[in-house]
Design goal:
The protein is built from 8 helices and 8 strands, in the order E-H-H-E-E-H-H-E-H-E-H-E-H-E-E-H. Helix 1 crosses helix 2 and helix 6 packs parallel to helix 7. It is 45% helix and 18% strand. It is an alpha/beta fold. Helix 5 links the parallel strand 4 and strand 5. The two termini are 24 Å apart. The model has no long low-confidence stretch (mean pLDDT 87). The protein has a 5-stranded parallel sheet with strand order 5-4-6-7-8, with helices on both faces. Strands 1-3-2 form a 3-stranded antiparallel sheet. It is elongated and about 65 Å long.
């Protein structure tokens, strides 16, 4: 299968009818194109994933399919919410696809436009921002695994975090735990 899906293929992966997918294209601006000389439409997989996330639709089957077909990276996609560049390399070395957002505004922008399997949030951004980002992810991407890199003086992590470490932490341990949680989740 190519990097684009037919309306029927997308409908099947999303658990909806083909008419629903056509309505998404016509009324909700799901990006699609027509094949030359045909009425058939194709939806780029990345656009379908972004659309599903933006409209809070369950896109787990679509993401799984896209990974199996090599249409999106097989490596889990991880948002690293931190202004500490030294945290990136150990996550990337563990075959995680890392997107870095160094401040809460950047985090909000990338969350709105990208699919993430996990988010690692550094408490150095401030606990108010940590709580806000956790709430945003719970609303916009409830299946995203949340991990907190807490400051040394931290109390209990805010609600929604599956993983939590006090800094300093070996980021290879963080990467291994993310892999383990995501493998367990995917069954």
């Amino acid at each position: 299968m190519s990097a684009a899906l037919t309306t029927g293929q997308l409908a099947n992966l999303m658990g909806v009818t083909t008419k629903t997918v056509i309505a998404w294209i016509d009324k909700l601006s799901l990006p699609a194109y027509r094949l030359p000389g045909s009425r058939e439409r194709r939806i780029p997989v990345r656009d379908a994933l972004q659309f599903a996330r933006a409209h809070r639709l369950d896109c787990e089957a679509l993401a799984h399919h896209a990974r199996r077909q090599g249409l999106i990276p097989l490596s889990p996609s991880v948002l690293l919410a931190s202004d500490n560049p030294s945290l990136v390399m150990p996550l990337s070395a563990a075959r995680l696809e890392v997107t870095v957002a160094g401040n809460p505004i950047q985090c909000g922008l990338v969350i709105a436009h990208h699919f993430f399997d996990a988010a690692v949030i550094d408490a150095s951004l401030g606990m108010a921002h940590v709580r806000d980002l956790a709430a945003l992810l719970a609303t916009e991407a409830p299946d995203t695994l949340l991990a907190l890199l807490a400051n040394e003086d931290a109390q209990d992590p805010p609600p929604g975090f599956t993983l939590c470490w006090q800094k300093p932490v070996d980021m290879q341990i963080v990467a291994s735990a993310i892999w383990a949680c995501l493998k367990e989740k995917s069954g």
